[in-house]
Amino acid sequence: CEEIKEQADAIKAGLVNIYITPYDIMQMSDIIFSCVTDPRSAKENVIGNCGVVGREGDILDGKGYVEMTSIDPQTSKDICEIIKSKGGRYLEAQIQGSKLEADKGSLVILAAGDRSLFLDCQSCFKAMGNTAFFLGDTGYATKTNLILQLMKGIALVGLVEGLALADRCGISSKDVLNIFKLTNLNCDYLTHKADLIVKKDFKHVEQAIEHMQKDMKLTLDLSDQLKQPLLMTSTANEVYKHARRLGYDGHDASCIYMRTRH
Q1: Which residues of the chain are modeled with pLDDT < 50?
Q2: Last residue of a domain, one of 88, 120, 137
Q3: Cα torsion 22, 25, 29, 34: sign
Q4: Contact 125, 109 (CB under 8 A)
Q5: 24-82: pLDDT as tens digits
Q6: I need a labelling partner for 161 at 20 to 30 A (CA). Which of 16, 19, 100, 193 fits?
Q7: 46 near 72, Cβ under 8 Å?
Q8: pLDDT for the residue numbered 205
Q9: What is the pLDDT of residue 178?
Q10: Residue finishing a domain among 137, 160, 181
Q11: What is the pLDDT of residue 10?
C-alpha cells in the first residue's frame, strides 16, 4: 500500500527493496515473513494469484516461511503442509503485544513449527521483541496466542463495564483510575486502556476492535471443535460485535466503552 511504500522510501536508499507480489519476495529471499489481517489473507499470500507457491511447479528448496498473522491452528497447519510440500520450512510466530509494544521493540513472540527456522530467525525476533518462545509443533503457538487474546478481551470488557457503572453512579472516572492504579488490579494493559477511555481517545489505535473481535471469534471456533464451553468469551464477543455494528471499526478496542456507556 502507499503508506508502506512511503515508509520504505523514507528509509535510507538501498536498505529496503519493494516488491509487488509475495511471489517476487519469495524469489529474492531466504526467509519470508507474513503479517496480514486475517486467516483468509494469510492463505491467499501463499496459494493465491502470484502467491508464494501460486505457480505450478514452484519449489521453495529450503526457504523459510514465517507466518505472523493472528490465525487459527487449522489454517496454520494448512499453510505448513503447503510450504513443506514445496520443500520449504514453516514457522508460525504469533505476536503478543500492541502497537505500543511494537514501537518499543518489546513484543513477545510465540513460535511453533520448524525449530531450525526458529533459530535462524533469532536476530529478527530480537529486533521485534524482548522474548521469543518455541512451543513445539505447528498449532501450539496459534492456540496459545488465542488463549491470551481471550483473557485480554474479557478483561477489557470488565474494565469498560466498571468505568461505565462508575459514570452512572456519578463517580469521576479519573478518581476510579487513580485508585485502580494503587491496587493489585493495576497492570500495563488495563491501565493504558483505562487512560484511553478516560481521555475518550479511541482513534489512537493500538489494537483495532475488528482485530480483537476476530481473535475472539477464532477462539470460539476452537472451543467448538474441542466442545469446551466459554461462556464469558461468548458474551464478550457479542460486546465487541455490537460495537462494530455501531460503526466503531478502525477504532481501538477500548471503544467498546462508548457502546456500553450509551
Answers
A1: none
A2: 137
A3: negative
A4: yes
A5: 999 999 999 999 999 999 999 999 988 998 776 678 888 999 999 999 999 999 999 99
A6: 100
A7: no
A8: 93
A9: 95
A10: 137
A11: 62
What whole-number distance in Å separates Cα of residue 77 and Cα of residue 71?
10
CA angle 104, 156, 190 (to 5 degrees): 45
* Three-class SS state of 58: coil
Paired residues of 119 in beta bridges:
none
pLDDT of residue 5: 65
Strand partners, 65: 32, 90
- The number of distinct structural domains making up the chain is 2
What is the residue-wise DSSP string for 3-46? HHHHHHHHSPTTS----SSHHHHHHH-SEEEE--SSHHHHHHHH
Q: Which amino acid is at 51?
A: G
Side by side, which strands form the sheet with 31-34?
31-34, 64-67, 89-96, 107-113, 129-134
Contacts of 63 (CB under 8 A, 6+ apart): 26, 29, 30, 31, 32, 88, 89
Exposed / middle / buried, residue 228 (Cβ in 10 Å: 0-12, 13-18, 19+): exposed
Res 7: pLDDT: 66
Q: What is the pLDDT of residue 59?
A: 80
What CATH number corresponds to the domain at position 249? Answer: 1.10.1040.10
- Strands 129-134 and 31-34, sheet pairing: unpaired
CA atoms within 13 A on the CB side of 92: 31
Show the domain range for 203: 144-261
| Residue 252, strand partner residues | 208
* CATH at residue 28: 3.40.50.720
Whole-structure pTM value: 0.91
Find the Cα–Cα–Cα–Cα dihedral 200, 201, 203, 206, rounded to 10°.
Answer: -120
